[in-house]
Fold these 4 entries.
Entry 1:
Amino acid sequence: MNIAGGATLVGSNRNADWTITGSNSGSIGGYPNGFTFNNIENLRGGTLDDNFVFNDGANWQGTIDGNRGTDTLNYSNFTSNLTVDLAALGATGIETVIGTTNATSTLIGSNTNNTWNLTGTNSGTVNNTLSFRNFQNLVGGTLDDNFVFNDGVNWGGTIAGNTGTDTLDYSAFTTALTVDISALGATGIELVIGTTNATSTLIGGNTNNTWNLAITNGVTLNNTLNFIQFQNLIGKLLDDNFICRNPMNWSGLIDGNIGNDTLDYSAFTIPVTIDLSTLNAVIIETIVGTNNATITLIAPDFNNT
């Protein structure tokens, strides 16, 4: 059977595999004599599960409505780079989107506030309604995007927050967490949340860094990226300036690493005592006190010059 032309093609009320072969053409499996269609503007699934499978490079020009059941858009046949933009997709009633492992797959969020739950490498859900897998790269929409990592998940590609106030949230981790800014593969992010369930370590980027430490285990890096719930801070290859502000009481380690690194208390307006034997800071070349209050420096318990 062949259907040539029409506004909308509605599937039968059974599980169906739709093969999308071109911009407005394809076939439906399960018919003994075959069932093909062309010049169709819109597709609508039946009341059970519909699987819309795209041939390599096929770009459907109309709308796809999964209707009821558990319905899927499947791009796993693609061998060329794939971008699925949820804001422009023209698909409704879809529960799962499958990218490709044969090329780079990018998923762009809709222009709403989005919560992305990252459940595994290149897989997760959006807003608890749409599941996705085989997407290496994620791009947020134009509003706020919150990327929430399940315990232990190591995302295998890139994450771009796009516009809005966007967050990477590792608070579900129960194992030790290290976030290395230079290797993170994330851009357009305004806030990174560590975990209080295990040790969280933050490593700076390969630039001169200014760390503003305003609260316990909270920091702003280079006035652009905010962090909370990180116990340990490690500088990188160049100079790191750790600016301490009262009433800050940092509970973890500060490691300057390579470069000329500084602990700067000049913003303090209350008395402060710095005991070098208990400071829990290493590889620091300079400590700057304050002119705004009394500051006391206690030397470590060995011969000092």
Entry 2:
Amino acid sequence: MARPKEFDQQNVLNKAMLTFWQQGYEGTSVRTLLERMGIHRGSLYDTFGDKHSLFQASLEHYDRTVIAHNFAPLESPNASREALVNFFISVVDWSLQDGDRKGCLLVNTVAELSAQDAEIAQQIAGYFQTIEQRFERVLWRSRQKGELTHPGDLRLLAQYLVMNLQGLRITAKVQPNPHTLQQLADVTLSTLFNRSNH
């Protein structure tokens, strides 16, 4: 009979996620993970599998917690232009409050692993597709309300927002200047909306 787990699985997974987020996949050893998670090697392998599987679980946890929380305002059935403006203001705020400049775990992972790990690349692509769909729904509502002035295809415009979101997060890691980041966010939105609307 299997022994019951003597730890909170979500709690230790959160610790693993934070460790990967701070140190990257290659920069994180199994020993460090065990120390940070506070579990034994056997428990890690029994519960999560190997380091790669744990990393995949950590990415999923990041999507369910950090990403879901950050994008919650855009999930409102009434979210449109104002919600997008507030969202990008929040992006600047998160970036500036990120004292150790962790950035975005998804963006970091693309830079570190996507070229040599097709499985991880596919997983990350799925998360970005979901983000794109969130943006597309908000843009659709904005167009219905007459707020969206750009005539372009909504999916393409949503991809444009994803690209600029990624760029903001990267820029904040190397140049965490509030004025610069806010200007970049403003330019991103002014491309889609009349300046008088935001």
Entry 3:
Amino acid sequence: MHRFSIHQQNEINDEIEKLLRLKIIQKSKSPWCSQIVPIPKPDGSTWLCIDFRALNKATIKDSYPVPRIEEIIDNLQNAKYFSILDATSGYYQLNMDDGSREKTAFSWKTGHYEFVRMPFGLCNAPDTFQRAMDEIFQKESGRFVFNYLDDTIVFSKNEAEHKKHLDTVFGKIRSAGLSLNPKKCKLFRKE
């Protein structure tokens, strides 16, 4: 285990307690163990990252297509209204496969833990999240919705149509049990 300052140790303790409380991680008996890497956030708090490089090296890569931003923008040419919806802690909203949880294990002085929800840093996390979002919006994708990882872009030709599209999208998000980050959502933007 690396050495951390007292401040970093306190931040890591707090973050682990929070992740346990939110059922994002759980105690583990896994033989796997990746290193904790605390990353400072702009607001002064700490983002608890795990160095999954060894796990990623041993992982069979998913080849699900993640769209390119340029392609999405090219397909928005005729739209007049836009909304961008941001999934709250996107990856954490997806459950880890039971057989994969033990591979996400990490240790801290308070114990050995593994992720119940999908963490950031896994090589297949973007593909897995993109696939999940594309499945949720299968009928709407390309018609009035584009998904780019944890962002959902809703686009329409006029305001009335945009309201209907947003109602549909919000309903799908609710049905899927996902939550949005209102601070990062941008609604009813014009061109």
Entry 4:
Amino acid sequence: MDFAFLRRLAVMAVILAIQVLLLNNIHLFDCITPLLIGYMIIYTRRGASRIGVMLVGFFVGLLFDMFSNTLGMGAASCTLLAFVQPSLLGIFTPRDAADDFEPGMHTMGIWLYATYLFSSMLVLHAAFYILEAFSVSDWRMALMAIFGGTVLSTAIVFICESITSNQRGILNR
């Protein structure tokens, strides 16, 4: 077994636990709920197999659905994010970047990473909340949930990434 694989599996379990136990209970303005489950898909390296990324996205979403009782909305939205992720990463990274390039604040820079993160979270939240609403009758609430959840999730991931990158910098001194 590869140590990096086990580390990613442990991080995925922690993120799923945080999402299910903590973040699913946050409902700002009765509609804004952050979805942190997309982080494992967003952080996938550049040269990863597209099918592998989509399978990871599907299973992360399926696990989220099982614990959150969301009837496939998590699996569908995470699979869509996994499908779009290589294209988004290609937009925000240089063409000559290595195949094992991992997106992050320390590799992309703050502005590019924040833009990539926001775009990815927007895809995830738009898919999730459009499937949840499944109509245009309450489009204001759906738009508020999409953009509010995107901003909140982006802020949470950005803060966590800055803390972990600062700890990496301290440990490497």
